[in-house]
Amino acid sequence: QTVLQGIILLPLRAICITFLLLLAWLVSSIATFCQPGRGHLPLEGWRRRMIQTALSSLTRTAYFVMGFQVKVKGKVASLPEAPIFVAAPHSSFFDAIICALTGMPSIVTRAENLSTPVFGTILSSLQPVAVSRQDPDSRKNTVAEITRRALARGQWPQVI
Predict the structure, then answer these.
(1) Does 98 map to a domain?
(2) CA 118 to CA 6: how far, in whole Å?
(3) Which site from 12, 86, 106, 145 is most exposed, i.e. has the minimal number of CB atoms within 10 Å?
(4) Which of 128, 92, 126 is nearest to 110 (CA)?
């Protein structure tokens, strides 16, 4: 019976996750379409709310479909309380759970990730701080950008 459940559930889960991923790509594309100051100015109004609510819900749903149920204990810090989140070790796909639970904050990511099909569009909608591994000044530029966003008094989303 367990093997039969796996034979049925695996393709069903794969189809649902693919559908949710494409829906997240569509939401991200709509939210960033004709975005003024693309990447240099924060998303505002309906664009930011769309990313915070729709993308967060889609990410949580995708993890639920994968079989993960996450419960939050305590209270997530608000933007005025903590303009910067630190999550460690940030090396797996579980980092997206933290993003979904905290309202889709900006992230720090490799610049190469932004050119990945589908995922690149979703990542771009989070207004990431892109780190270029080829640029010798990248570390200094990344710290400067995170500091600039943290001191912007709520104009930018939290950075994780």
Answers:
(1) yes
(2) 27
(3) 86
(4) 128
Residue 92 structural domain = 1-151
CA triple 32-99-121, angle to 5 deg: 30
Q: DSSP code of 90? A: -
Q: What is the pTM of this model?
A: 0.83
Contact 148, 138 (CB under 8 A): no
Burial class of 160 by CB neighbour count within 10 A (0 to 12, 13 to 18, 19+): buried
Q: Is residue 157 included in any domain, yes or no?
A: no
Residue 160 covered by a domain: no
State how many domains the chain has.
Answer: 1
Q: Burial level of 114, CB count in 10 A (0-12/13-18/19+)?
A: middle
For residue 108, the surrounding DSSP H or E stretch is strand 108-110
Structure tokens at 158: 């939290």
Q: DSSP letters along 28-73, please? A: HHHHHTT-TTTTTS---HHHHHHIIIIIHHHHHHHHHHHT------
Residue with tokens 């305590």: 74
159 and 105 Cβ atoms separated by less than 8 Å: yes
Query: What does the pLDDT look like over 121-150, one tens digit per residue?
Result: 998 888 888 898 888 888 899 999 989 888
Question: In this structure, is residue 158 part of a structural domain?
Answer: no
